[in-house]
Structure prediction request, 403 residues.
Amino acid sequence: MKNIANIITSLLFSSIIFSSVFAENIQIFNQDHKNRIVIQNDIGISGDSDLFFGSTLSHALSWDNTNNYFIFTDDVNFSGNEIKNVRLENLSTAPICDNSSAGRVYHNISDTFSYVCSNSIWSKIDEEVSVLGGKLQPYFYEITPDKISTNETVDLTIIGGNFDEDTVFTLGSGILVNSITINSDKQATINVTGGAIEAFNISVDAQNDTLDDFGQTLTVDVQDDIWKLFAITDSAKCAESLPYGPNMLTETSAAYFSTGMQNELHSKFKQVLTVGGVTKYEILYDFGNTKTIKDRMNNAYTNGEPVTWTVTNGANTYTYGTHLWYFSDGASLASKWSGSGTRFSNDDGSWGANSGNVDGNGGPYEIWGQGNHNSSDASQCGAYYTNGSKTTSSSIKNFMYLQ
Prediction:
């Protein structure tokens, strides 16, 4: 036994000088069919034990003899395996919570709640849920969309956690709840209709539980005049090469026509033409009637849509109309409202205003805006027009909204 111990002692400690090192303090033996490695303090001496790792011996697993616990000098990674039979640190008073201890958790034995240190504040991470039979308190942190129009019916998606069939969603004023669907423990869908023009808060609580929810307060604005983005064109794609499909758009999206908006009722378009991220001018299309975007575009290429244009260019305003906007009488859009593709218009297309009609397929063409004038997108979309004056640019981004 001593020979083995001496060898291990030599391997472990040959490069470091320790005071009073005895081979008997390190033992390897078999007992009750179990292999045991023992590091034992000298009898009568109270001290700690360290097991060092690494080329510089700067990483250690230490035994604190005074407090009877182990200390790891580095993070512990359990590689996704379960940690079983674990208790949070039990304390009767809260320790210091500051930026250096963010994320620390403990269980307070005085009030029997557990806490996490966040933003220098101890926040409860559990609630008393005896009424619920041990259910976890629901919470939420995201809502989409966060703006809706008056009288608009839309699905609000709530993202959070611990949702179940007993979760109740309470909404503020300015909203009519049509239905609530719990999709999973992390997502719910609330179908609502916008009412009063005011902001309202959405809160979530568990049925029969009188405690407040915890999580971010979410706000949806009910607005009278929301402009919804349905198309983006750029210097290379504005008609024949314009991708289309059901995806929704944001201002950071690439060139695309969203057929997912095809059933949106509206009476106006707003065109915002930008170059290099700077707005050059805006064009308001006032159609004077309400249609879906599908019906509007289909009628535009077949019959022309009567419209009055108002162009705002800095401090200057120009009004034209009423004239017909065809987009392109060769567009053939009837088949484009299902599926997706890379050629929204079969032939040409103009986005813009004129002192007369506008038709991308042979003219007359826009004097404000952008389009493919009876040619290819590659040769045409890289130009925009300012009161008839043509400017070419590789950084055009043209936004089309409806209301």
Q: What stands out?
A: The helical segments are 2-13, 293-302, 377-380. The chain has a mean pLDDT of 83. The first strand starts at residue 26 and ends at 31.
